[in-house]
Design a protein that fits this description.
The complex is a heterotetramer, with 2 copies of chain A (143 residues) and 2 copies of chain B (116 residues).
Chain A: E1 4-8, H1 12-29, H2 33-57, E2 63-68, E3 73-79, H3 106-114, E4 117-121, E5 128-134
Antiparallel strand pairs in A: 1-2, 2-3, 3-5, 4-5
Helix pairs in contact in A: 1-2, 2-3
Chain B: E1 3-10, E2 13-22, H1 27-39, E3 44-55, H2 57-71, E4 76-80, H3 84-92, E5 100-102, H4 105-115
Parallel strand pairs in B: 2-3, 3-4, 4-5
Antiparallel strand pairs in B: 1-2
The chains are: A alpha+beta (143), B alpha/beta (116).
The complex binds adenosine-5'-diphosphate (2 copies).
One adenosine-5'-diphosphate sits between chains A (13, 16-17, 19-20, 40) and B (1, 21, 53-54).
Protein name (chains B, D): Anti-sigma factor antagonist
Function (chains B, D): Positive regulator of sigma-B activity. Non-phosphorylated RsbV binds to RsbW, preventing its association with sigma-B. When phosphorylated, releases RsbW, which is then free to complex with and inactivate sigma-B.
Family (chains B, D): Belongs to the anti-sigma-factor antagonist family.
Chain lengths: 143, 116, 143, 116
């Protein structure tokens, strides 16, 4: 079982709640202070992406984020329920292709650049992004 | 921390002061401001990011959107930023090659003086 | 649907996460600054109670907290899965009956004293505590 | 904010300085300290709550548990507290009638001087 699970409706404000929770739990789990910024940003990106995708495809469905601290790592999984047919793969930068919407794929680029370890599982039923960081030995709570 | 926006003109530049968090929640306000400035004929924008605590890819998207708009009028959108945590995000996404990034408003103004 | 839902395993550390989330969302929803202390404390109490009950009865089961901001009020519901046969009703204070464990019922007393409005639903399948506070008009997110 | 605990003896009183949050997460440490002090023969405890930011009912439970232990040795457990947000919790739970609550360590010491 995930240690903590947060479910929220597809609203930008809730992305802040998710960032706050992820940062607090990362700190407690013993993730180094210098990495907390990256945790906050990467988790925020993954949730923002999910919120945008839900608003486009299924605004009524909730987004889920699971935070685990077993296994010596701090692991975060963000799952959305929007069909991910957008092929957010890396492309060479071409300003004319960049739009100010999410399809530009910056989000995934940022996550990939920040998380210590990332796996992205796109599927017709939604995307799952799993990120993790090393957790210190002095984390307090297990389970 | 919410987002605070302010702007004023210096010479031919419009300096946009941004303070706080530019994220999925607040970025729409920055987008509106940039669109508004362009619609009113300000095509040389300098966005001062020195007081930005947090920037995510939604914020990047808004800046890129602004850049496209001013370019359509032969304008420019440049940034002032020295904070490592913010610069990192531009670097990760390759956007350091797309934006002019200066260490201070004065440095940006000087560069502009030379260009024109 | 609840705006935000948090599920966590029965560990004291997670009570802090729940307090943090409740306070952040209450603030955003426009609950007055002067009431945020009460929100933090009352939500903490309800979650502590649930954690203690789970540790005694079902340590593997998760605790759930739902936070809503529709309806002009900020509403928090904490649900546990521990059989509530303890009859935590009000009793006159008698030191010899007070123990330093949770059965003393302080938790419920504190919640009742702090929340603007409280309802407690005990059942053989677990207890549900619903608390609410007035939310300002300048709250940002609905949904 | 975590919990910091300290203690020292003044006259016949053992003064316990508590700083930070006494909640379900940290209260076990306060409980251990109180038990330890009593086991070592300190039966007149004065808990200084002036630097406590947060107190929940688990914390109340620990204080009540301490009170029962010292009473078993004809001792006392009293509090120093002037913070309204903390006092409120004692009031709500009726515990203002159970604990002696003083405005300062000196006031508590004086009252003790008179008693004995
Ligand atoms: N849902 C929310 N809505 C509004 N403010 C929030 C919300 N969640 C957290 N906050 C507040 O926003 C502040 C900033 O949160 P966050 O962006 O996660 O971190 P930081 O400002 O440290 O980068 C926090 O101090 C918190 O009180
Ligand atoms: N799960 C957690 N474990 C450890 N620290 C946490 C946890 N959640 C939040 N915190 C930190 O504890 C601090 C205090 O949280 P809380 O007790 O809810 O509020 P306050 O200290 O304002 O009364 C917060 O600033 C936060 O960074």
């Amino acid at each position: 079982m995930a240690t903590v699970e947060l479910t929220f409706s597809a609203l930008p404000a809730h992305v802040r709640t998710a960032r706050l929770v992820a940062t607090a739990i990362a700190r407690r789990t013993g993730v180094e202070e210098s990495l907390l910024d990256e945790v906050r940003l990467a988790v925020g990106e993954a949730c923002s992406r999910a919120v945008e995708a839900h608003r486009a495809h299924c605004p009524g469905e909730p987004i889920r984020i699971e935070l685990r601290d077993d296994s010596g790592r701090f692991e975060v999984t963000v799952s959305d329920l929007a069909p991910s047919d957008e092929h957010e793969q890396e492309r060479p930068l071409d300003l004319s292709m960049l739009s100010d919407s999410y399809t530009s794929g910056f989000g995934i680029a940022v996550i990939a650049g920040l998380a210590d370890d990332v796996e992205v599982f796109p599927s017709p039923k939604g995307m799952r992004i799993r990120m993790s960081w090393p957790a210190g030995l002095n984390g307090h709570a297990a389970g | 921390m919410d987002l605070k926006l302010d702007h004023h003109n210096e010479d031919r530049l419009t300096i946009v002061e941004v303070e706080g968090e530019i994220d999925v929640y607040t970025a729409p306000r920055l987008r509106e401001l940039l669109i508004d400035l362009v619609n009113k004929g300000n095509f040389h924008l300098l966005v001062n990011m020195e007081k930005v605590d947090f920037l995510d890819s939604t914020g990047l998207g808004v800046l890129v959107g602004g850049l496209k708009r001013v370019r359509a009028h032969d304008g420019s959108l440049e940034l002032v930023c020295t904070q490592e945590r913010i610069l990192k995000i531009f670097r990760i996404t390759g956007l350091t090659k797309v934006f002019g990034i200066y260490a201070s408003v004065d440095e940006a103004k000087e560069a502009h003086g030379r260009d024109k």
